[in-house]
Each structure stands twice: as structure tokens, then as C-alpha cells.
Amino acid sequence: MPRAATTSDTFNAIAESRRRDILSYLAPAERSVGDIVIGLRMGQPSVSKHLKVLRDVGLVRARREGRHMLYRTKAEAIRPLHEWTKTFEQFWSHQLDAIKARAEAKAKNTPKV
User: Fold this and answer.
1) Where are the domains of the chain?
2) Which of 2, 36, 41, 101 has the fewest CB atoms lying closer than 10 Å?
């Protein structure tokens, strides 16, 4: 079965790790393509390509300021991703609790030197 296009939905768009890096980098502040290139040490054509995909699915907004395009993560567009992953939080918490219990039990049974 062929893979869906990266522009078909947000999940396909963020399947690429560099796009997730860009979203994280843009979250705290609006940035230009040049800033992203320098900050993430990526090539400009690659950054532009990833930004287009992120814009197409609505995860990033852009605005022009003079000759520059400034990009920012659209927090409201991230919400559906957050809500979906939140359904699995109980599994992560359970796993972390189990790891903590094993570590504490091991520490309790390990003789002190």
C-alpha cells in the first residue's frame, strides 16, 4: 500500500523528524528561513521544502515583513495532535511507574559499600 502524501494530513507531515524539529524551533518565536537554516543547521532548500509542507497542512503560519517571510508554529493546529497522543498517556505513566518501582526495589536490595 503506497504511503499517503505528506500534505494529506498533519500526522503524515510530522512523520519527518526535521519537520518536527522546525515546529519545535518555531514554537517560542517567529523566525525567518535564514534563522531556521542557521539554528537547525539545515540547507535553505530543505527548510523551504519542509516549511511548504507544514504550511500546506496548516501547522505553520507565515507573514511577510519587507522582503522576508517570517514563520511561526500555529499552536491551535497542534492541539489535535496533542489530544490524540494524550489518549496514550496512561500507558506511558504506567510504564514509568513500573520502571521506578523496579529501580527502587533494586536499590533497596543492593548492599551499600
Assistant:
1) 10-109
2) 2
